[in-house]
Amino acid sequence: MTVKGADQGEHGAAVAEAGGAVGGGRPASLWHDAWRDLRRRWVFWWAAAVLALVGTMAAAPGLFTDLGRNENCDPNQARLPPGGGHRFGTDLAGCDYFAHVVHGARPTLFIGVAVTAFALLIAMVFGMLAGYYGGLLDTVVARITDVFFGLPFVLGATVILVAFPGHGVGAMTLVLVLLGWTTMIRIMRAQVIAVRDADYVRAARLLGASDLRIMLRHVLPNALAPVIVVATLNVGNVISGEATLDFLGVGLQYPQVSWGLQLNLAQSYFVEHPHLLVFPAAFLSATVLSFLLLGDAVRDALDPKLR
User: Fold this and answer.
1) Beta-carbon neighbour count of residue 138 at 10 Å?
2) Confidence of residue 1 (pLDDT cuts 50, 70, 90)
3) Is the same domain home to 194 and 127?
4) What string of H, E and C letters represents the secondary structure of 46-88?
5) What is the mean pLDDT of residues 55-75?
6) Which of 25, 78, 87, 142 is found 20 to 30 A from 268 (Cα to Cα)?
């Protein structure tokens, strides 16, 4: 009995060191351990701070400027350098450039987040069904994914947007969703296939759990982590794609405001008036970089092999 008790004590200590619950403690989980790891990373907090600032600009631009996106414009004061009453200078129409940069955050961030959210939803639903059931459904989803995966992201979006002029934020979001869901659905399908035959899934099936319950309670939580990482990185990629389309002149159109559109209007005046390009480029670069760094940090925290 003494030896058995000693073995149990050693086993309990090992479980406690591994982060498991001993004696009613808080049970360990992948997400809890990942959050504990993220809190120690300065890169995570820097990226979160930048994204919080940009998110506040997009949600409440009135906190940063009293001007609308095209208010109080004076053509006689066009292309003024930063200073005086215009901290970022003025644009080609004599509008306050700081106000334009602030208002440009909303469509840029909205498109990036909305496209990723819809693409993630598509990946979760169809990737889950294809990976869990397999067979003909898996084949059909895989072939459709291959077809869309072969379409170049920027080139495909350019062709569609040129064919349908007069588009706005909604049309941009729809086009980018149409071309941007393939990577996440492939990863989701692969993760579901990897966990669908695990012991805990078989046990739930033997206990009479329905397929829907098994997918939501057992398969999805254990297959979602890599997809969340890709989704975080994808927001930055979508924002870059949207800005590229705006820069090429096939994205949002004036009088709408976005950072990519500001870059498009400033390309011919960069040498004489560099502020027209520097400020939107700086905010765009910082936002994209923050999403990429955040995705890298989340990936390192969720993947034990990278710790």
Assistant:
1) 18
2) very low
3) yes
4) HHHHHHHHHHHHHHCHHHCCCCCCCCCCCHHHCCCCCECCECC
5) 86
6) 87
- 211: CB partners within 8 A, 6+ apart: 132
Does any domain span residue 36? no
Which pTM was predicted?
0.83
Helix, strand, or coil here: 74?
A: coil
Rounded CA separation 251/165 (Å):
9
30 token code pair: 């992948």
The whole-angstrom separation of Cα 89 and Cα 94 is 9
Q: Kindly state whether residues 24 and 91 are assigned to the same domain.
A: no
The whole-angstrom separation of Cα 135 and Cα 220 is: 20
The C-alpha atoms of residue 91 and residue 172 are separated, in whole angstroms, by 25
Whether 18 and 101 share a structural domain? no
Decide: 127 and 185 in contact? Cβ < 8 Å: yes
**Greatest distance between any 2 Cα atoms in the chain:** 94
Number of domains in the chain: 2
Q: Taking the CB of residue 29, how many other CB atoms lie within 10 A of it?
A: 11
Residue 131 shares a structural domain with residue 10: no
The answer on pLDDT for 127 being more than 90 is: yes
How far is Cα 185 from Cα 191, in angstroms, rounded to an integer? Answer: 10
